[in-house]
Amino acid sequence: MTAQAAGVFRRTEIERTDQRVAWERSDQAFFAAGACHLLAWACRDTYPARSIGIEAVRFEGEQHVFHTFATWDGWTFDHSGWNPEPQLLTVNTEFEGHPLERVAIAVTLDDFCDQHHHRMPHDYWRDPMQRARDYVRRHQPPWA
C-alpha cells in the first residue's frame, strides 16, 4: 500500500465526540486519525527484537503533534503500512500544505497521551490495542 496522508481520514465532528461512531470506521481510517499513536506503540511492541522508534509530525512551530508512526531503518509504519520514510513525510506535507517538523517520541504511551492530549486505550469504545496488533500483523515488515 502506498503512503497516504493522515489528513485524508480526518474525523468528522460526530466521530470526534462519539467513540462508537469513531470505532466503526475502517481500520485504516481509525488508525490514520484518532488512534495512530496506539498503532505506533503496537508496532513497536509486536517486534521487540527490532529497534523500532516512535516519531510524530507537527506543524512547524506548533507544540502538539497530529500524526504518530513507528520507524525502523529508514522505514515508517502507520495506517498505510510500511513505507519509506521520505514518502510518508512528503505525502503528509503536500496534503497539509504547511512545513512539518518531525519529533522523536521518547516517553511512555501514558506520558505521550498526557503531553499531547491523545486518548489512552481505556478511553475508546472498545479495546483498540488488539485491533492495532491485528492491523500490524496484516502488513509485511520490510525485513521479512
Explain this structure to me?
With 144 residues, the protein is of the alpha+beta class. The chain has helices spanning 13-17, 19-23, 27-32, 36-46, 85-96, 109-116, 128-137, and strands spanning 53-59, 67-72, 75-78, 81-84, 100-105. Strands 4-3-2-1-5 form a five-stranded antiparallel beta sheet. A hairpin with a 2-residue loop joins strand 3 (75-78) and strand 4. Helix 4 (36-46) packs across helix 7 (128-137). The longest helix has 12 residues, at 85-96.
Number of strands: 5
User: How many domains, as an integer?
Assistant: 1
Hey, roughly how much beta strand do the residues contain? 15-25%
Biggest sheet descriptor: 5 strands, antiparallel
Low-confidence blocks of residues:
none
Radius of gyration from the CA trace? 14 Å
Question: What is the overall number of helices?
Answer: 7
| Structural class by sheet pairing and helices | alpha+beta
- How far the N terminus sits from the C terminus, by CA atoms, comes to 16 Å
Order of helices and strands: HHHHEEEEHEHH
Helix content: 25-40%
Order of strands in the sheet with most strands: 4-3-2-1-5
The 3D shape can be described as globular
